[in-house]
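Q: How do we represent a protein-ligand complex in a form that can be generated token by token?
A: Start from the inputs.
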Amino acid sequence: MPSRLVIAIDGPSGSGKSSTARGVARALDLSYLDTGAMYRAVAVAFLDAGVAPQDEAGVIAATVAADIQISLDPDDRWVRVNGRDVTTEIREPRVAQHVSAVSTLAACRENLVARQRTLMDADPRGCVAEGRDVTTVIYPDADVRVLLTADPQARLARRGGELGARVNTEQLRDQVLRRDADDSKLVDFTHAADGVHLLDTTHLSLDEVIRAVVALAKEIA
Ligand SMILES: Nc1ncnc2c1ncn2[C@@H]1O[C@H](COP(=O)(O)OP(=O)(O)O)[C@@H](O)[C@H]1O
Ligand SMILES: Nc1ccn([C@H]2C[C@H](O)[C@@H](COP(=O)(O)OP(=O)(O)O)O2)c(=O)n1
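Then emit the structure tokens for the protein with adenosine-5'-diphosphate bound:
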């Protein structure tokens, strides 16, 4: 394996990106970047500032101005925006409902992509980063690039298992299926680009998925 290793993982909601990326980072002793947490943090920032989701100029201004601090430790996840800890808040349904207002604006993506590249380069050991455009836009030169997929039913069941009684069936479908449809407007995370390994996780356990990605990393001379 190279002395510095970069692993890029993309996929739709509930495909297992975060859990897989954290497991791989632990197994290979690498830093971990949750790029989606940054989109979610910006959503909190614009909502806090009273900006309406339809106000594109307002959402862009809130993105550019957002001071985002994020942990790169797979065992200690936290994110702060404009000085406030929003680790728990970014997982709330109101954030999932409005985060696509950020992800569907090219200017917001450009701003976050530049920060994400810098964060991926911060640790000399290397990094495992996950999101929607890590394999294609943020780090197309990554040593290992993986696109995780899973049937919609499996993804709904996984996200439902996480959120439990906090959401009803309609809210769950909005969080997973509507959000994926909106999020795919500017990035393609359903087809594997050239050189990207496609891994269907529908019938795999989390451990099996982690082992498959670690094996890909170990294949590198
Ligand atoms: N292969 C898998 N089999 C079963 N459950 C999984 C698998 N991968 C992830 N999960 C579970 O599904 C939920 C969503 O996973 P997560 O990693 O947050 O997905 P994503 O980051 O793609 O939205 C978590 O509760 C996680 O433990
Ligand atoms: N690299 C990324 C990461 C996330 N996003 C967007 C798309 C998602 O709706 C939000 C939140 O991403 P997150 O990975 O937390 O979402 P899931 O956990 O997969 O449901 O951010 C993106 O557009 N590009």
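The longest helix spans residues 106-120. The longest strand covers residues 5-10.
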